[in-house]
Amino acid sequence: MIQTEVEFVEMYEDQPLFGDVDRLLRGAGFQFHTFEGFGKRCFKPLVANNDLNRGLRQILWSDAVYVRDFMEFESVQEDKPLKLVLMLHDLFHSCDLCLYILTEIDRRAATDHVQRYREAFADSTPV
User: Fold this and answer.
1) In terms of residue numbers, what domain contains 18?
2) Count of domains for the chain
3) Are residue 82 and residue 51 in the same domain, yes or no?
4) 64 shares a domain with 31
5) Per-residue pLDDT tens over the stretch 43-96
6) pLDDT confidence of 124, banded at 50, 70, 90?
């Protein structure tokens, strides 16, 4: 899994933007999963609520989260998907992708991870 800052608007000369980073990581076998937070700023000369750092609509940057291509789990060692599930759940609350991965693990190894995941988080997580 990779979490990296990406920019949507060039703030530094010749810097790579989100599309460039996305192309590079997809080419390396990663799949985009989600964004974590967004950095916004107002267009000058507007200042919102006397706060130079407050943004309105213009999104400048975010953290992008990528995982190994989840459509290609056949080539992944068996313990790595379980570790990925732990990180995705604890760091990003990505219950949907966790269930997808656990379903694939259960299919391949005849385990009951999906049922145990649902039971463990039934009261606190929308799975």
Assistant:
1) 1-69
2) 2
3) no
4) yes
5) 777 777 777 667 677 899 999 999 987 667 666 566 788 888 999 999 999 999
6) low
The CA distance from 16 to 107, in Å, is 40
- Which tokens hold the place of 80? 């790595």
Distances (CA, A) of 71 to 30, 32, 68, 101: 10, 12, 9, 10
Confidence of residue 16 (pLDDT cuts 50, 70, 90): very high
Last residue of a domain, one of 54, 69, 84: 69
Count how many residues are written for the chain: 127
Is residue 81 within 8 A of residue 104, CB to CB? The reply is yes
* Residue 64 CB neighbours (<10 A): 20
Tokens of 123: 């009261």
